[in-house]
Design a protein that fits this description.
By secondary structure, this protein is α+β, with helices and mostly antiparallel strands. The chain has 5 helices and 6 strands, in the order αβααβββββαα. β5 and β6 form a beta hairpin.
Length: about 190
């Protein structure tokens, strides 16, 4: 992260999370923001990579409000991302206000799946979905990946994963195929 505004947003999120409600692991958290000039690309809408950075802020807020980040720090676990996907529905424009809603969708033996949804009002004042970021991630410790079950236990959360949506199953199947296909490709040859 080299953009000063991102650091300022991160500091603001961390400094003010206690002012927002505590969240349980299956709760959806909301951050409100405004599109800044540093968020834009040459088309004068939010840069595609910026959505991932803003999703990071939503995830950090969610981790803080659920206590998961504090628990991870206590155990010397750090959050990692294995895969991210973004679906763009509409363009967020300069100075447009938006809400970023973050939630934990489900988890399995190794990975957890989170979703970040960007909402804003259109010119008629109707709330619309502008973009969705899906994340496959985990916490990692000295011994490797910390299972979601271990993480929930450390957090003191006695909750089972919601059913995995079919699109996540399909996404994982596609990712496995992609991984297998790229393992069989020959190394690139320098020109």
């Amino acid at each position: 992260v080299s953009d000063p505004m991102t650091w300022m947003r991160l500091a603001g999120t961390a400094a003010t999370f206690k002012l927002r409600e505590h969240a349980d692991v299956l709760d959806t958290t909301t951050l409100r923001g405004v599109v800044l000039p540093s968020d834009l690309d040459f088309n004068l809408h939010v840069n595609n990579g910026r959505y991932l950075t803003l999703a990071d802020l939503g995830r950090i807020d969610w981790f803080l409000r659920t206590g998961m980040l504090q628990s991870g720090i206590k155990h010397r676990w750090r959050p990692i991302i294995a895969t991210a996907a973004v679906r763009f529905s509409r363009s967020l424009k300069p100075w447009q206000r938006y809400e970023l809603r973050t939630n934990l969708l489900c988890w399995g033996d190794k990975w957890a799946f989170m979703e970040h949804r960007f909402f804003a009002r259109n010119r008629q004042g109707i709330e619309k979905l502008f973009a969705t970021v899906a994340i496959k991630g985990a916490f990692q410790g000295r011994e490797g990946v910390v299972t979601p079950t271990q993480m929930m236990r450390a957090l003191g959360a006695d909750v089972a994963s919601p059913p995995q949506p079919q699109w996540i199953t399909d996404w994982q199947r596609g990712e496995d195929q992609w991984r297998d296909d790229t393992r069989t490709e020959p190394d690139a040859v320098a020109a």
